């Protein structure tokens, strides 16, 4: 699962970089500034939708993609390519004015890739917040078992028969987006994931800043073990007649025994 998550993160990053380039190409073919700024300012949201707003469903983000690109579709359908000045120097350019079909095909490509990007980013973050036994909607469907049949016998009539078994050595896909499953996901959004359980190590006392990671982990284990021993001793009933051993009283002028770990807070007997 961690390897698949890292591969999906790489796919998300690659699609995001590609979409930024396609937005720039669309602007160079038809230099309209405000649609270009609107696309660039909202592109980062589609690469991490649940980190921005975890309460929104995938359907909301699809509608947002359509609304963001609606102005570009309107301009390219009814007005065609713009001939105004561009704020970017295009050293390549084209010798003729691009047609409406070219601009619309580029817009359809951008919208399709944004749908794919948002789906992968949303489902990847959603499945990590769900329990481990939750099925992954981006996983490929299991291959149905092929009915086996005996092979024809060679030569003599014996009862030996060979059956063909399906091979499982095929490539394992990282992402498998199926249109039927995606439409079902849009029509019936899944319930939000349950709240995450708090980490037990967050309730412990803070350690000094000079403590390294290895020392912090070791001291946390010691603190937890000491707390468990105290709880076990408190739950263990004492035999009748046995009293708690008393500690020797400290005489006046006697130095107090130090029980403090260097760099940590005071011990149990210290105020």
TrEMBL record:
Q: Which Pfam families match?
A: DUF1746 (PF08508)
Q: Which portions of the sequence form the region Disordered?
A: 149-171, 185-208, 228-271
Transmembrane annotation, as ranges: 58-77
Keywords, sorted A to Z:
Membrane, Transmembrane, Transmembrane helix
- What are the Polar residues biased-composition ranges? 161-170
Output compositional bias ranges, type Low complexity: 198-208
Ranges where the DUF1746 domain occurs: 15-116
Q: In which domain of life is the source organism classified?
A: Eukaryota
The stretch of residues making up the signal peptide is: none
Composition bias, Basic and acidic residues: 244-260
What protein name applies here?
DUF1746 domain-containing protein
Which organism is this entry from?
Lentinus tigrinus ALCF2SS1-6
